[in-house]
Design a protein that fits this description.
It is built from ten helices and seven strands. With 221 residues, it is of the alpha/beta class. The chain binds S-adenosylmethionine (SAM).
């Protein structure tokens, strides 16, 4: 039995994913008045992300169930002990990552989120899931919070905050990624710069698109 598939986490995730399914951003009044072009522009913007995600602060915007299972499996199979997450939201992805750490025997997820109400909800969810002791929440813009007090080595990185910042966040953390470290980037199609970088082996990565919405990359030694 694993932490992921047993109580209290399994029923908690069932409920959180049900709520996430019911709260699609596409139908949200917060962005319903924006044209598809404007939404795409905001998703790709390196400057308007505070406004964009501020509008979406009541929505979970969670990874899919499949990506959640993938994160858990990758963290388990790699024996991850140190994980960094860009974009925590309500903590659905964080719960998967912390569950893997629990089943690996311990460790730390350093995660980031700038919306205070989301931090509060995530903290409640991580507490309900019995995993808060494995998670260090850094509140504020990850460009700042993930630029200091970094762990010596990072085994796994999840990129799921503002898509346009993926290259900048990767640059902050790159020197700490251990050879073989895994990077999961959700919806990386919105960051062509990021894809170009990780898909060029000269930059020190192997990378492949995976399923519909994930770019799966590995740091080369
Ligand atoms: C797609 S959601 C993350 C979903 C989460 N990983 C999950 O699966 O449950 C993106 C989150 O990143 C946050 N975010 C975006 N840019 C950020 C930044 N520069 N610093 C901190 N948080 C950021 C947003 O407020 C939003 O909650």
């Amino acid at each position: 039995m694993t932490t992921l598939t047993t109580a209290p986490l399994a029923p908690l995730l069932d409920r959180l994913f049900e709520e996430a399914d019911a709260a699609s951003p596409a139908t949200s009044p917060a962005i319903a008045n924006l044209s598809a072009e404007e939404r795409t522009r905001l998703m790709r913007s390196k400057t308007d992300y505070l406004d964009f995600y501020g509008r979406l602060k009541d929505l979970p915007l969670a990874i899919s169930r499949e990506t959640g299972a993938l994160l858990y499996m990758l963290a388990r199979s790699g024996g991850a002990r140190t994980i960094v997450e860009f974009g925590m939201s309500f903590g659905i992805s964080t719960l998967h990552l912390a569950a893997a750490l629990r089943d690996n025997g311990g460790g730390r997820v350093i995660t980031s989120e700038f919306e205070p109400s989301k931090v509060a909800r995530a903290r409640d969810n991580l507490t309900a899931g019995g995993l808060i002791d494995l998670v260090e929440i850094r509140e504020g813009d990850a460009l700042r919070t993930l630029s200091v007090d970094l762990p010596e080595t990072i085994d796994l990185l999840l990129l799921d905050g503002a898509k346009a910042l993926y290259p900048e966040i990767l640059s902050l953390l790159e020197s700490r990624l251990r050879p073989g470290a895994i990077i999961v980037a959700d919806n990386a199609d919105y960051s062509p710069d990021y894809l170009e970088r990780v898909r060029s082996p000269v930059n020190g990565y192997l990378s492949t698109p995976f399923a519909e919405d994930v770019e799966l990359s590995m740091r080369l030694g």
